[in-house]
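We include the pair:
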Amino acid sequence: MDILTKVNSRDADKIFSSMYGENQVQSARERYVKLINEMLNGDFPKAELPAASEAAADLRVFSAPGRTELAGNHTDHNRGKVLAASIQLDCIAIVQKRDDNIVFFRSEGFPAVKVKLTDVNGALDLQPKPEEKESTAAIIRGIAAELNRRGRNIGGFSANATSTVLIGSGLSSSAAIEVLIGRIFDSLYNQGKPGLTSLEIAQIGQIAENVHFGKPCGLMDQTACSTGGAVAIDFEDVKNPIVTQINFDLSAVGYALCVVNTGGSHADLTADYAAIPTEMKSVAAFFNKAVLGELDKETVLPRAAEIRKEKGDRALLRSFHFFDENIRVDEMANTLTVMENAAAATAKLEAFNRFMDLTNESGDSSWELLQNVYASHNPESQGVSIALALSRDFFRRKNIRGVCRVHGGGFAGTIQAYIPLDAVDAYCACMEAVFGAGAVTTLQIRSVGAVELVF
């Protein structure tokens, strides 16, 4: 049975329904069929296809989701705790093995990338290359390098990809691609070996981004994208973080999770993002520690006057956010577990209401203590603040129970809101009247992470 027949089968219906929702099965199928046909019917560069590419049976299918942060705003870089979840928006790829150690990766809307993994003598060529810095080529070579270092087999492949993960939205479009590529390499070339764990795939993606791409990112995004479902992550041991999967069914309590894209630019915010871990670590350094994860609030508070004088008020406030947010993540994870195990609908709703209270506290802490809702050097641009204010006003006017918080890195970009299902359309209309059509995306938590789909 070839791949087109499989994608159009009832087995595929079940897979697509679980990944994207029952009402998105046909649109999901159309995405996959389009990519397959491009490879089979000449729309994909023939020079970049293996000799047997016209056989649909040779094609393989991969998917990796984006992620949403539920709590733990800017805590991972100081070895804190995070609550996140993979979502139905994903990067998918139709893939075929090559025998020439070349990776050809084409993603819709972006220039195609070609990476040769060997040098002119046929030896592996996996060292970072300055000319590839901050490019997809760097990610591909970096992932291959780390897989090779870990004793995994690598080789070439052609991939035709497309993504529904919104770029610049805080939903981790780049991490989705990283864990997708890692899963492709490992599935194609390491059959017969135990597959890499989701955490290993995430760590490989992070190393590629740090070393080859040149961005000092944390591990939260890759872990959530790779693992699937809701996950609580404890980064106390940064090399061996504790990842706990938690079921989180919003529809069971009559709610939807939305993100609102405020349209702000991240172009001039690098210094603002960098200041957060730097200032948190400066408070840790006051106590001769590397990160705040080595301290607690009870140790810091008695020295607050000295810290203010030496490190500044904002650094101290951001440390308070870190400590409080860590406690919240634990309670929110426990609350979701109670919600999952509750038999009665009233008990589920009671647990969810507590989760909502904690989400509101997380949002307030980001706004007041972490101070990442707008950039202090550009107070005229406060799209995130406007979105939060409009959301709170909407909840009040409609007399509904809803909460909202800044989402992701902050300063610009998106907010997150929990909305009763029967109020989603009205909320979308309210927010899109200010931020434009399509500004609101309703998310679903997807149970599987980076995976090869077998129909």
User: Anything to note?
Assistant: The CA atoms of residues 108 and 162 lie 5 Å apart. The chain has two domains: 3-246+448-453, 250-443. The two ends are 10 Å apart (CA to CA).
